C-alpha cells in the first residue's frame, strides 16, 4: 500500500469530512531580484501525489539586458518540468541538451542518480525587454528509480492533448486524465494540466487518481461552497467526485496529482531522496567538484561557473 499523509485510522473519510483536506498559501521567496511563490513543500503537505515542489514564477517584466541567470546546479532523485505561460528560458544540462523552454511545451528532465543544468535568459533574447510567467515543479521518483540514469525529453505544445468543451480549455501537460494521455513517459502514474475556465464554467477533477490538488493562477474558483482567489493551492481527499467552478471573471488553474510515494522524502537544497545517506553522498560529490571524472559534470556550453553547495 502506498504512503498517503492524509489517511490514518483516526481520520474519518467519506461524508464525515469536508472535500478539501488542505489549503496552502504559498510563501514568497526572493531569488536574487526575482520573486517566486512556493506552494510545495509546505508545513502541512510535503507532496501532492508525486509532486514535491511547486513554484509560481512571476509574472515579471524584465528590462533590456535583464533576465534570469540560474547558474549550473545539481539534482538527484527527482524529475523537473518547467511550464511557461509567457517568455522563454534557455535550458542546458550535463547530458548535452541545449533547449529553449517556450510557452505550452513540456521539458521533462529526469535527474535520477545525478544531473546538472542551468536556466538562463541569454543571447540575443536578453537584448530585448520581455516578461516571464510560469510554474516550475519537481516530481519525486519512486525509490527503485532514484538511481536510474538521467534523461531529458522535450515535447512541443503541438504534441500535448487539448480538450475544449462547455467553457473549458484544458491542456494535459503530463500523465493521463479525462481519457487522454501525454506522449511522455513518467516514472509513476500522475496527471498535470493547465485549465482555462470561462466565467461559471465547471471542471471535474479526475476521480481515478489517488491524490489530487489544484492551484489557482488567476481569477477565482469555488469548491464545496467555498471561494478561493489566485495564489491558493487546495488538496482534496481521495475518492470524492469533485468539480471546481470558475468565478464571475473566469479562472486559470493548474491541476495536479497521482499516485503517492511509498513514504516521505528527504529534501536538501536541490536533492530529493528516500534516505539521508543518498543526500549526504550527493553533497560530497558536488562539493568535490570533479567535473571530469566525478558523479556530476557541468553542462557543455555553460561550464565556466556553478552554484556552490550551501554550508548547512
**Unreliable runs, pLDDT <50, ≥5 residues?**
1-17
Structural class: mainly beta
Q: Kindly state the mean pLDDT as a whole number?
A: 90
Residues in β-strands, percent:
over 45%
The number of E-state strands comes to 23
Number of helices: 2
N-end to C-end Cα span = 35 Å
Describe this structure in words.
The chain is mainly beta. It contains two helices and 23 strands. The chain has helices spanning 123-126, 276-288, and strands spanning 20-24, 27-30, 35-40, 51-62, 69-75, 78-86, 89-93, 98-101, 106-110, 115-120, 130-140, 151-155, 162-165, 168-177, 180-181, 190-197, 202-204, 211-223, 226-229, 233-236, 243-258, 266-268, 271-273. The strands form four sheets. Strands 1, 13, 14, 15, 16, 17, 18, 19, 20 and 21 form a ten-stranded antiparallel beta sheet that branches. Strand 18 and strand 19 form a beta hairpin. It starts with 19 loop residues before the first strand and ends in a 24-residue tail after the last helix. Residues 1-17 have low confidence and may be disordered.
Amino acid at each position: 500500500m502506498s504512503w498517503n499523509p492524509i489517511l490514518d485510522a483516526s481520520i474519518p473519510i467519506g461524508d464525515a469530512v469536508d472535500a478539501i483536506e488542505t489549503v496552502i498559501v504559498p510563501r514568497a521567496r526572493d531569488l536574487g531580484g526575482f520573486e517566486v511563490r512556493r506552494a510545495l513543500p509546505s508545513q502541512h503537505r510535503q507532496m501532492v501525489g508525486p509532486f514535491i515542489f511547486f513554484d509560481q514564477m512571476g509574472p515579471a517584466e524584465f528590462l533590456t539586458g535583464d533576465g534570469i541567470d540560474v547558474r549550473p546546479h545539481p539534482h538527484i532523485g527527482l524529475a523537473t518540468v518547467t511550464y511557461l505561460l509567457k517568455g522563454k528560458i534557455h535550458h542546458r544540462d550535463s547530458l548535452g541538451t541545449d533547449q529553449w523552454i517556450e510557452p505550452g511545451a513540456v521539458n521533462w528532465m529526469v535527474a535520477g542518480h545525478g544531473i546538472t543544468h542551468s536556466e538562463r535568459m541569454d543571447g540575443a533574447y536578453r537584448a530585448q525587454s520581455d516578461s516571464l510567467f510560469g510554474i516550475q515543479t519537481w516530481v519525486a521518483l519512486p525509490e527503485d528509480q532514484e538511481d536510474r540514469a538521467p534523461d531529458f525529453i522535450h515535447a512541443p505544445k503541438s504534441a500535448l492533448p487539448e480538450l475544449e468543451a462547455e467553457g473549458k480549455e484544458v491542456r494535459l501537460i503530463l500523465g493521463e486524465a479525462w481519457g487522454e494521455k501525454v506522449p511522455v513517459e513518467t516514472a509513476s502514474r500522475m496527471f498535470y494540466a493547465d485549465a482555462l475556465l470561462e466565467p461559471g464554467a465547471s471542471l471535474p477533477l479526475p476521480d481515478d487518481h489517488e491524490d489530487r490538488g489544484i492551484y489557482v493562477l488567476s481569477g477565482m474558483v469555488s469548491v464545496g461552497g467555498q471561494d478561493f482567489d489566485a495564489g491558493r493551492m487546495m488538496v482534496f481527499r481521495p475518492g470524492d467526485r469533485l468539480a471546481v467552478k470558475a468565478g464571475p471573471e473566469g479562472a486559470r488553474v493548474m491541476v495536479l496529482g497521482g499516485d503517492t510515494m511509498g513514504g516521505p522524502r528527504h529534501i536538501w537544497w536541490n536533492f530529493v531522496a528516500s534516505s539521508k545517506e543518498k543526500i549526504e553522498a550527493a553533497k560530497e560529490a558536488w562539493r568535490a567538484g570533479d567535473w571530469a571524472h566525478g558523479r556530476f559534470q557541468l553542462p557543455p556550453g555553460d561550464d565556466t561557473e556553478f552554484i556552490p553547495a550551501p554550508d548547512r
